[in-house]
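Narrative of activities, Objective 1.

The group set out to show that a structural description can be obtained from nothing but a protein's sequence at a throughput compatible with the screening campaign. Below is one input-output pair from the validation batch, recorded exactly as produced.
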Amino acid sequence: MSRHQNSLIHRMPSIVQSTLQSAVLLSMLATPAAAINLNLKPIGSFSTEIFAENTAEQTAYDPITQRLFVTSSGRDRIHILDISNPTNPSSSLFDPIKVSEFGSPNSVSYNNGIFAVSVTNKMPQNPGFVLFFDADGNSIHDPVSVGSVPDSLTFTPDGTKIIVSNEGELSDGYPDDPEGSISIIDLRDFSVTTANFDSVSIPDNVRLFGPNANNPSQNLEPEFVTVSQDSQKAYVTLQENNAIAVVDIASGQVEKVIGLGFKDYSLPGNALDASDKDGKINITNYNNLFGLFQPDGIASYMVNGQTYLVTANEGDSRAFSFFDEEARVGDLILDPEAFPNAAELQKDENLGRLKVTNTLGDTDGDGDFDELYTFGGRSFSIWDTDGNLIFDSGDAFERITAEFLPEFFNSNDEINKFDNRSDDKGPEPQAVTIAELFGRTIAFIGLERIGGIISYDITDPFNPFFLDYVNNRDFSVDFNLNEAGDPDPTAEQLAAVGDLGLEGLVFISAKNSPNGKPLVVTANETSGTLSVFEVERVPEPSSVLGLLLFSSLGWVRQTKRQRSNKS
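Output recorded for this entry:
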């Protein structure tokens, strides 16, 4: 089972380890004196034994009963797992909670004896629900109606309210485009205030595009939410719109919407691998190519009284039968002045395969593209609450995964195929959670496609640095394929492969942990697994493991000041 598998990093060939160690010796000299070394070790796993049906998406933890709730939208249920022994998460105590009478569960949050679960209505354009359970799975309050397609939800730090991001997502499956909104549930009486974007001024650098582009409440799609430590403000990613909404919780109103600008792929430290057809790792800069940050996951923390926002810049597009913004560079007409080498650039082995949006880039309105905009930042970022970019990891994620897993670089989450995702958002940073550990502030960022967790020290938001990468995926396991050529794993293959398609990420402090050690928990929608990692402090940076944890640190720190966004 996957809980007995070692991290791929710990199984690296000695020749690769030696190379990384040599590269690290000099880079360690630039490490802050107070820095720590971390190692994430997989210690336990639970499997739904169902492949690629979204059976383990988001999770939340109750430290009193030492139980996890895990949402399964693919089966309209919620698993209750006992992790009192974190090496053996178990579902034997309780049957799954079935919520099919309401719809499909999306997300879950916990506070003070209450698990709150967001549920999309069976008719998704209609208002969704938040359901309330105790740790035994008993309903403890009537369902509360919120906006359409409620996605992320979280309790305010003071425990008095729940903030729900209602995506209001457009779909081929229904004709109406529901409003995106944010619901605030007051737990004193379970009353609901829902804020839309009708009276909000929308800056020019916020993407309003496609169907209902003239109606911000329909066009903006709230994705993920975090709340400031003082419980006064909520910050909500608007992924497709490349923006963040700021909500004043006391008034129940959207205060403002902040456009995030663009990432300039011509700058040093902001390169990418843009082709899945070149047969190699080729992390390269390109002129007039920009990235939409488009964060999914978001978290927040405070430094010297200032709130900072941390985002996982996954990327997403709108692609329907009636509207499709996706295009490949090779199929576009490029401006001859902006792209004098267009014929060469548009070859499949260069930029031709890269997916970009057809809604941006014709700056002079003459029908050709003067600039190109691709989906997602392939990075994580730190912002202030006015939307100023404080730090971006640039091309570090692709370089880290290329260094650790060169034979499976930019593989997707269903099949082992080298370079498969280079044309389409790369590793796709999906989730982020923040931990206070050993006197430092650590960000854990989950990668959806190639998989794994990347750890950064973000104690100083202006000077983050890379700590660790761990991937609980066994790339030696190849799935059977069906007649259509799609992966169709046997039960044995699925049990052996580990984690695929990381979607949810939760940190459990040592104080609240069942074994007294800090833990990180991942929910993985493709493999249908939930895995528990123990966070270890590595005291000797001269050891082999310590050296591995600091690989790539030098180039990450050298490029961190070159991060840029084009606003």
